[in-house]
From TrEMBL:
Protein name in UniProt: Pre-B-cell leukemia transcription factor 1
Lineage: Eukaryota, Metazoa, Chordata, Craniata, Vertebrata
Location of the DNA-binding region in this protein: 232-294
Pfam families listed in its UniProt record: Homeobox_KN, PBC
Chain intervals for the UniProt region annotation (Disordered): 1-39
Cellular localisation: Nucleus
Cellular component, GO annotation: nucleus
Cited PANTHER family: HOMEOBOX PROTEIN TRANSCRIPTION FACTORS
Main location: nucleus
Length: 421
DNA sequence: CCTAATGATTGTCA
DNA sequence: TGACAATCATTAGG
């Protein structure tokens, strides 16, 4: 406490606690004749008061009692009252009510929003979810990070509440102690109930300052936790295998136009447990990387084409519709788009396609043949659809048109010959 | 430890 | 605003 709690005088003439007959004493003390003797007495009393702290507790109590019973005590009391009245003016100005603290309100709001000072647990998880949403994160270990965040937040919450309780308890104890002390002192010096009340206010203000520091530290802790959580989410995590497969499936089956609509993105996001923006990122990356080096992705493309063909065939053979098995739901549409609508995506490739590598083409063709063999053996022979699919069209191979055409024919013949055996 | 793969970010353009 | 291109930063495999 930097500013000593000074006793405040209430309005003039208010009775002092424990001293209803103060005026009487005052009049008694002013009319005396033996001034010298009284001065001596007062000097003694003051001396005793000054040395009271040097004495033991029992001694002090005894001395206090003796002072209370001293015949000059009322006179001393009056003097104290006079001094107090004189000092009141200089003190009064310092006792203004503080306006509601904006910073405290901010802290309170934040603690409430973060679920630290809220009514019940669960606010923490909401905040965690909000943080996750803000980070745009998803992913497989989503829940573990959430629980980690929740655990840390509830730890903070617990510490906060424990400390708060401690402070409140200490504040109450101290207030009671001071009030008792003042009541006790009011027997020897003039203290009004209002002054006691003011003293209590001062104590409460001091404790609320401490509370604010606690709130501030808690807020800081939450912010640090939150930023760490968000940073962790911002870290790159590879998508799980299944998610990548879903994305690749879509990409290669829509190779002619690998630009999923918003709805398609949402559906993919749902299937892959990632966000729509992550889907967009993935397609953005995929398109550009595919375009940059088609050869590298050829095998992957073949694999997914084969896979979709297989699944399409399975669907068509097991399903009730037996009309057109050559048009698998996604691959088929892409294929037909490719053939009819001039394949914008791939035509871009043809224009700036400078990645021709002879050996690579050989490998590509070989891998295509292998894939097709595999597909045929799986499907029990179904080649027309595959021959028409964009993967095996001349445009689908990143070579000069003539070479591509001949290779394409070669592959198709190979396939057809196998089929017709 | 090096390197390729890959998800995310940023700046630019139509 | 979405796509693209370049780049960053992290992960994973040898």
């Amino acid at each position: 406490m930097d500013d000593q709690p000074r006793l405040m005088h209430s309005s003039h003439g208010v009775g002092m606690a424990g001293h209803p007959g103060l005026a009487q004493h005052m009049q008694d003390s002013t009319g005396g004749a033996d001034g010298e003797g009284r001065k001596q007495d007062i000097g003694d009393i003051l001396q005793q008061i000054m040395t009271i702290t040097d004495q033991s507790l029992d001694e002090a109590q005894a001395r206090k009692h003796a002072l209370n019973c001293h015949r000059m005590k009322p006179a001393l009391f009056n003097v104290l009252c006079e001094i107090k009245e004189k000092t009141v003016l200089s003190i009064r100005g310092a006792q203004e009510e503080e306006p509601p603290d904006a910073q405290l309100m901010r802290l309170d709001n934040m603690l409430l929003a973060e679920g630290v000072s809220g009514p019940e647990k669960g606010g923490g998880s909401a905040a965690a979810a909000a943080a996750a949403a803000a980070a745009g994160g998803g992913g497989s270990d989503n829940s573990t990070e959430h629980s980690d965040y929740r655990a840390k937040l509830s730890q903070i919450r617990q510490i906060y509440h424990t400390e708060l309780e401690k402070y409140e308890q200490a504040c109450n104890e101290f207030t009671t102690h001071v009030m008792n002390l003042l009541r006790e002192q009011s027997r020897t010096r003039p203290i009004s109930p209002k002054e006691i009340e003011r003293m209590v206010n001062i104590i409460h203000r001091k404790f609320s300052t401490i509370q604010m520091q606690l709130k501030q530290s808690t807020c800081e802790a939450v912010m640090i936790l939150r930023s760490r959580f968000l940073d962790a989410r911002r870290k790159r995590r590879n998508f799980n295998k299944q998610a990548t497969e879903f994305l690749n499936e879509y990409f290669y089956s829509h190779l002619s136009n690998p630009y999923p609509s918003e709805e398609a993105k949402e559906e993919l996001a749902k299937k892959c447990s990632i966000t729509v923006s992550q889907v967009s990122n993935w397609f953005g990356n995929k398109r550009i990387r595919y375009k940059k080096n088609i050869g590298k992705f050829q095998e992957e493309a073949n694999m997914y084409a084969a896979r979709t063909a297989v699944s399409a065939t399975n669907v068509s053979t097991h399903g009730s519709q037996a009309n057109s098995p050559s048009t698998p739901n996604s691959a088929g549409s892409a294929g037909s788009f490719n053939m009819n609508s001039g394949d914008l995506f791939m035509s871009v490739q043809s224009l700036n396609g400078d990645t021709y590598q002879g050996a690579q083409v050989g490998a590509n063709v070989q891998s295509q043949v292998d894939t097709l063999r595999h597909v045929i053996s799986q499907t029990g022979g179904y080649s027309e659809s595959l021959a028409a699919s964009q993967i095996y069209s001349p445009q689908g191979i990143n070579v000069s048109p003539n070479l591509a055409s001949s290779l394409f024919r070669c592959v198709r013949n190979c396939v057809l010959s196998r089929y017709y055996i």
